[in-house]
Amino acid sequence: MGKRIAVFASGFGSNLQALIDYNKNHSLKGEIVLVFSNNKDAHALNRAKKNKIKSVFLDPSAYGKREQYDKKIIELLEEEKIDLVVLAGYMLLLSQGFVRKFKNRIINIHPALLPSFKGTHGIKDAYEYGAKVTGVTVHFVDEGLDSGPIILQQAVDIDQDESVEELEEKIHRIEHKIYPLAVKYFCEDRLKIEGKKVKILNKNDIG
Ligand code: GRF
Questions:
Q1: Could you give the CA distance from residue 151 to residue 131 in angstroms, rounded to a whole number?
Q2: Residue 150: is it exposed, middle or buried by C-beta count within 10 angstroms (0-12/13-18/19+)?
Q3: Distance of alpha carbon 156 from alpha carbon 25, whole angstroms
Q4: Per-residue DSSP letters for 85-96?
Q5: Distances (CA, A) of 99 to 2, 69, 70, 93, 103
Q6: Which are the catalytic amino acids?
Q7: Is the minimum distance from the CB of 184 to ligand 1 under 6 angstroms?
Q8: pLDDT mean values, one per 10 residues, the chain (207 residues)
Q9: Residue 108 Cα: closest atom of ligand 1
Q10: Which residues pair with 34 in a beta bridge?
Q11: Whole-number Å distance between alpha carbons of 124 and 121
C-alpha cells in the first residue's frame, strides 16, 4: 500500500507544488493526504485546496507551549494515519516530543550543503560568506537543528557576478528536482539509516 504523506509548509509552497506535480506525472509511490500550516495565509494552503488535498491550519498562539501545539498536530497525523512528514518551508521548530514520535519519518529540505549554513537563511548566508559552491540538502529530522542523517545533496556553483535572487532561483530549481526523488525513495522503503549515514537501496535489494 502507498505511504500516506503530510506536507508541512508555512509559506509559498513551491516545494509542495513540485511534489504534487511529480506525483501526477511520475508517481511518488505515496499519496499526499494532508497539508498542514501554522500560517493561515500560507499560499501552500491554496495549492492544497486547488488539488483537493485536505488542508489544516492551526494557530500556534492558541496553544500555550510548543509541546501542546505539537501534541494537537500529532493527534491529527494519527487520525490521518500519516507515514511520512515532509517539511517544505515549515518555519517552526518541532518539539522533541514530536521528533521522537515520528523518528525517522520526518524529512526536511535545506537550501545549502549541510552542515554548512544551517538555519533560516541558508541561501543568503552562503552568498554573503562568499562561498563558491553551495547547494541543497534533503535530510531526516532529528532533535538538533538541520543535523539529521543526509538523504540527498546536490551542489551548485555560485557565479561571481550573479545576484542573490539568481542564486535563489537556481537553488529552488534543484530543490524541486531532488525533493520528490527523496520522498519517492522513502515511499519505496529504499532508505536505510545506519547511524549518520543513509543508504539508498537498489530496488532489487529491498525485502
Ligand atoms: C525552501 O527554500 C526550502 O529549502 C526551505 O524553505 C523554502 C521553502 O520554499 N526550507 P517553498 O515554500 O517550498 O516555496
A1: 23
A2: middle
A3: 26
A4: EEESS--SPPPH
A5: 22, 13, 10, 10, 6
A6: 110
A7: no
A8: 95 98 97 98 98 98 96 98 98 97 98 98 98 98 96 98 98 98 98 98 81
A9: 10
A10: 6, 54
A11: 6
Give the number of other Cβ atoms within 10 Å of residue 204's Cβ.
6
User: Cell numbers at residue 27, please?
Assistant: 508517481
What SS3 class is residue 202? coil
Euclidean distance between CA atoms 85 and 46, whole angstroms: 19
Q: Is 169 exposed, middle or buried (0-12, 13-18, 19+ CB in 10 A)?
A: exposed
In angstroms, rounded to a whole number, what is the distance separating the alpha carbons of residues 186 and 152?
A: 12
Predicted structure pTM score: 0.97
State how far the Cα of 139 lies from the Cα of 41, in Å rounded to an integer.
Answer: 27
Nearest CA-CA partner of 77 in 99, 59, 61, 93: 99
| Ligand 1 pocket mutation, candidates 8, 14, 106, 153, criterion most atoms within 8 A of CB | 14
Residues paired with residue 37 on neighbouring β-strands, in sequence order: 57
Strands annotated E in the chain: 3-8, 30-37, 54-57, 84-87, 106-110, 133-140, 150-157, 191-194, 197-200
